[in-house]
Backbone:
């Protein structure tokens, strides 16, 4: 198979949850991210827009935001099936 079409193993992916304190949608998103990443063995991290001016300026109207490998995957509501598919396709 051509290297162009090879899938990256889930463990080689990175999910980033961009959030802020006191955000109930962020808490909901974290539950989904923890579940999907835990099931697939995908590392994930969270970043707080109140501690990073650049993230704040870019995402403050959209939080929570989920990035997959540094690219925006979704915002506001995280769909478990869609995230799982993005990490396994």
Residues:
């Amino acid at each position: 198979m051509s290297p162009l079409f090879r899938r990256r193993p889930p463990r080689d992916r990175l999910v980033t949850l961009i959030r802020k304190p006191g955000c109930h949608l962020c808490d909901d998103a974290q539950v989904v991210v923890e579940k999907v990443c835990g099931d697939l063995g995908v590392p994930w991290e969270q970043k707080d827009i109140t501690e990073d001016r650049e993230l704040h300026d870019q995402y403050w109207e959209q939080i929570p935001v989920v990035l997959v490998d540094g690219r925006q995957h979704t915002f506001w509501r995280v769909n478990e099936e869609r995230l799982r598919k993005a990490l396994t396709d």
Q: What stands out?
A: The longest helix spans residues 24-40. The helical segments are 24-40, 53-59, 80-88. The longest strand covers residues 15-19. The chain is about 35% helix and 20% strand.
